[in-house]
Design a protein that fits this description.
Layout: E1 8-10, H1 11-16, H2 19-35, E2 38-42, H3 50-62, H4 66-69, E3 80-82, E4 103-109, E5 124-125, H5 136-161, E6 178-185, H6 188-191, E7 201-205, E8 210-214, E9 222-226, E10 230-233, E11 241-245, H7 247-252, E12 261-264, E13 276-283, E14 290-291, E15 306-307, H8 308-319
Parallel strand pairs: 1-2
Antiparallel strand pairs: 2-11, 3-4, 4-5, 4-6, 6-13, 7-12, 8-11, 8-13, 9-10, 9-12, 14-15
Length: about 325
Amino acid sequence: MSASTLPTIDLSLWRSGDRRSRDRLAATVDGALERAGFLLVTGHGVPPGLPAAIRAAARVFFHQPIDAKLPFLARAGQYGWRGPGAVATGRAEGLVTPPDLLETWSMAPGPYDDAAALPAGPGLLPEAWPSRPRALRPLLALYARSMRALADELLELLAAALRRPLDFFTRHTTRPDWTLTLNWYPAVTTAGAPRPGQFRVGPHTDFGTVTVLDRQPGKGGLQIHTEDGGWQNAPYDPEALTVNIGDLMARWTGDRWRSGRHRVLAPPADALSEELMSLVYFYDCDPHTVVESLPAPTGRVSHAPVTARAYVRSKIAEIALP
């Protein structure tokens, strides 16, 4: 399977199809994640126009001078804005690369209310949000709710692909860790010319269970690595979201499925004004979940058990720059 042949899964068929149709979808998912770790997903239920509204609001923030963004700087272990030079994602693979060419805004769930008489959702981190634009927080909150529901639905589909009960994964997502990140890739005219070996995002695999990506196509865009095709431009469908699994899921399946390896290229010399923005939802699971590899014949490699939050945080620490 090459990047250009990634299957598109219509989740509306998963929701409404008969047993045979659902089994076919599950088998397609199993094959795609085994070979590439990536899928395209339609019928996802994200409100139409919401990603475009988020991008429009976020550009107002990102286009401000650095001094206006500094009050929202995300320091170690916090959420908010990260400016140029904050990460070198290729370090997760042991690569020595210049810092990634992007700025980010990230949010996550705040503490849950354990004392509430009724189930209570968390607040949102960071606590401080920009007043310009005021629309950013409510738009992202709405998107995060859509992503949470979608991620759990995807985990049910993944459980079916492994011939496990539908709640095999979601029993571990009652109060999960997740991060919603806006990746802003500024134009060369803003960020300066790329240095040798510099990427918008360096080669890596994600760290959690599933990642859901709403992206824009570009010359300095997403590439996927497969054994059959090497590095190839990722297929793009404006109606589809790109879904890949991360290291926790690969470990959980005993490497039956591949953690999807990918990168985002620096803009080439003939695209100096290209500016892109991706909405990236990283889904993990409940913080203290112990992830153990499924045994053979489903699993193929027995990894040492890891605790979900501790593992993900250790990987994030590898790519952070001082």
